[in-house]
């Protein structure tokens, strides 16, 4: 299959997660993604270990989100190295960076400077909190942005401490929003010939992620409250949540209380009407907690599926991988680093029933520097 972004060149001046996450998806879609890295150290994500797992002198995390890319080592304070970097910029379609405000300006690789080299460049910058204000120079780290965005009050129960998501949700979401904006800018450039300055921040991404909460707050001026029992969504009524059963857990989504009780037959639940579902949700959820634990997950699934209720078992990764649904999705792929094979997930997109798979591993630091220089020299001649 002809990859949709074949012929598009991305320069990735990025580290850790958000920028590299955007580069990964663009590479999966066929773009040539060239990481510009510091000699000797490279992307700081090379040293960000997951469970102390390392592959070929870089962390497993680095390999996870930097496969299918090239690495060009350049000292951005060196006149000679900058000469070649600017030649790369002149060939590029997109520049991505996720440094703090002022860093690219200091080395004259900000949008205004880069636009002089490549007038139709699509210049994408990701910050932690935007370019202005007292937080602009604070570290744009995922946990910190989760903390100040209010997101930590969406997980857990009412009396729990604030809880973060168990993954770098701001980084991953912001990286994918960067891809969306880059694709939109590429389409506009194709129509008009104009480049673009794209500005994103982890904080704006996480505020957008909570649009339901913010919209509700704007109308009511009231902070949303997590339910005291089995909170699943602060704005939704009972029975929404996860409940323990006799041998596991079950997720129960939106459904009429009366229809639910036809399936599960709880005498205590009969005294509540649909009008009580939000105002008395803690009381209702406490009853359901005691009821669901009396039987197994499979029993409740069987009873509730008879009435087409929205319910699923709660699975861990091992259990998920044993299901025919997971196996049918073909979400796994492998790439080799030396003699070691690494299994990872594939790009989740299909076009015309075709998967986007790549067995090209993450690059060694500076692996493609000389090759890229030779291309530039040849073009110059």
Question: Could you explain the architecture of this structure?
Answer:
The chain has 381 residues and is an alpha/beta fold. It folds into two domains: 252 residues, Crotonobetainyl-coa:carnitine coa-transferase, domain 1 (Rossmann fold, 3-Layer(aba) Sandwich); 81 residues, formyl-coa transferase, domain 3 (2-Layer Sandwich). It has 16 helices and 15 strands. A six-stranded parallel beta sheet has the order 5-2-1-6-7-8, sandwiched between helices. It is elongated and about 80 Å long.
CATH topology of the largest domain: Rossmann fold
Major β-sheet strand ordering: 5-2-1-6-7-8
Distance between the termini: 34 Å
Beta content comes to: 15-25%
CATH architecture of the largest domain: 3-Layer(aba) Sandwich
User: Any idea what the CATH superfamily of the largest domain is called?
Assistant: Crotonobetainyl-coa:carnitine coa-transferase, domain 1
Biggest beta sheet summary: 6 strands, parallel
Shape: elongated
Mean pLDDT: 96
SS elements, strand count = 15
Rg, rounded, reads 25 Å
Helix fraction bin:
25-40%
Q: Helix tally? A: 16
Look at the structure and give the CATH class of the largest domain: Alpha Beta
How many structural domains in the coordinates? 2
- Which residue ranges are poorly predicted, with pLDDT under 50 across at least 5 consecutive positions? none
> Helix- and strand-based class?
alpha/beta
């Amino acid at each position: 299959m002809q990859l949709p972004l074949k012929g598009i060149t991305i320069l990735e001046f990025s580290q850790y997660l958000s920028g590299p996450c955007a580069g990964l998806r663009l590479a999966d879609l066929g773009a040539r993604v060239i990481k510009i890295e510091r000699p000797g150290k490279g992307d700081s994500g090379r040293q960000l270990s997951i469970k102390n797992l390392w592959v070929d002198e870089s962390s497993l995390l680095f390999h996870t989100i930097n496969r299918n890319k090239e690495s060009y080592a350049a000292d951005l304070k060196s006149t000679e190295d900058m000469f070649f970097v600017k030649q790369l910029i002149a060939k590029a379609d997109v520049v991505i960076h996720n440094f703090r405000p002022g860093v690219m300006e200091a080395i004259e690789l900000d949008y205004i400077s880069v636009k002089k080299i490549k007038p139709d460049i699509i210049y994408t910058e990701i910050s932690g909190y935007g370019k202005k204000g007292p937080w602009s120079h604070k570290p744009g780290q995922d946990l910190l942005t989760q903390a100040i965005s209010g997101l930590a009050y969406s997980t857990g129960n009412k009396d729990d401490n604030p809880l973060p998501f168990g993954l770098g949700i701001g980084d991953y979401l912001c990286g994918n929003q960067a891809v969306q904006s880059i694709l939109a800018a590429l389409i506009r450039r194709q129509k008009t010939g104009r480049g673009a300055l794209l500005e994103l921040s982890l904080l704006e991404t996480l505020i957008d992620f909570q649009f339901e909460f913010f919209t509700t707050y704007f109308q009511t001026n009231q902070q949303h409250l997590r339910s005291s029992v089995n909170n699943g969504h602060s704005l939704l009524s009972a029975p929404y949540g996860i409940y323990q059963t006799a041998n596991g857990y079950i997720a129960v989504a939106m459904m009429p209380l009366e229809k639910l009780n036809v399936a599960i037959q709880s005498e205590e639940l009969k005294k509540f009407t649909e009008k009580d579902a939000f105002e008395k949700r803690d009381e209702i959820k406490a009853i359901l907690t005691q009821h669901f634990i009396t039987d197994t997950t499979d029993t409740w699934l069987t009873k509730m599926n008879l009435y087409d209720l929205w319910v699923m078992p709660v699975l861990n990764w091992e259990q998920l991988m044993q299901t025919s649904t997971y196996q049918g999705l073909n979400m796994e792929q492998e790439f080799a680093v030396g003699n070691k094979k690494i299994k990872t997930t594939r790009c989740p997109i299909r076009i015309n029933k075709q998967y986007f798979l790549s067995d090209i591993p993450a690059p060694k630091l500076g692996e493609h520097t000389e090759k890229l220089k030779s291309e530039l020299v040849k073009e110059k001649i």
